[in-house]
Amino acid sequence: MLTRIITALIGIPLVLGVAWLGGPYLLAFLAFLSLLMGREMEAMWDRLGITPSPEITRWGGLLFLVATYFDKGSGVLAFLVLYALARETLRGRRPLRHGGAALLTVLYTGGLLWWIYALHAGMGRNAVFTLLLIVWSTDTAAYFLGTGWGKTPLCPSISPKKTREGALAGLAAGTVAGSLGGVHLLSLGPGAAVVGAAAVSLAAQTGDLVESAIKREAEMKDSGNLLPGHGGLLDRFDSLLFAAPVAYHFLSLWM
């Protein structure tokens, strides 16, 4: 637990600082995350006997993020689809199995991370701060209250330790924290703030469950060991990957 807390004390100011700066600093940070997440996904695919193109799994998400910044994302994505499928076909392998895995990695990392940058660029740093507030409150409450008082399994076939009590606690904490952030940081009405915070909190927990399902399929406890006490980057950012697009599209309707 001490290691987990120390890692959080180092990581949280870093993330907040990059979110404050925004612009190319945030883009570079997200691109670097995508590169490292791609390597973690590559390890998971390997456990499943799938070996997608390493140049796509490692660099595709980064390339997509940078290209999207210059409004060239659709062109780069089309190129990656053509390259991934053609590469595996010409090598006499299954293009859907290996090429599809490479493209899913690009979309899961770079494609979903992009919405954090889009949120900052479109709605400002306070929108990203509110997103982080919801996700971190959700994760923290679900973990501690679920561990201490949770008894009813949420999805035992995916993650035996997650409980319904923890999920409800996470939803409550994320909704309350996000509502306060929405009202005071984004000037949303109370009703919109509550609905938006609840939607983002639910998306965050869904992202956590999806990554748990991926790890269960790959028979891995953690996606990596880069973050002491937390596992890999996907273990730490899985909730944000799903929460960011929901936050962006919800706020685009209200701001």
Could you characterize the architecture of this molecule?
The chain has one domain. It has nine helices and two strands; from the N terminus they run ααααααββααα. The protein has helices at residues 2-21, 23-47, 54-69, 73-90, 95-123, 125-149, 164-186, 190-218, 233-254; strands at 153-155, 159-163. A two-stranded antiparallel ribbon has the order 1-2. The chain has 255 residues and is mostly helical. It is 81% helix and 3% strand.
Largest sheet: 2 strands, antiparallel
Kindly give the count of domains.
Answer: 1
Radius of gyration: 18 Å
Strand order of the largest sheet: 1-2
Q: Tell me the β content.
A: under 5%
Low-confidence stretches: none
Give the overall shape. globular
How many helix segments? 9
Helix and strand string, N-terminal first? HHHHHHEEHHH
What gap, in angstroms, lies between the N and C termini? 40 Å
Structural class by SSE content: mainly alpha
Mean pLDDT equals 91
- Count of DSSP strands: 2
Q: How much helicity do the residues have?
A: over 70%
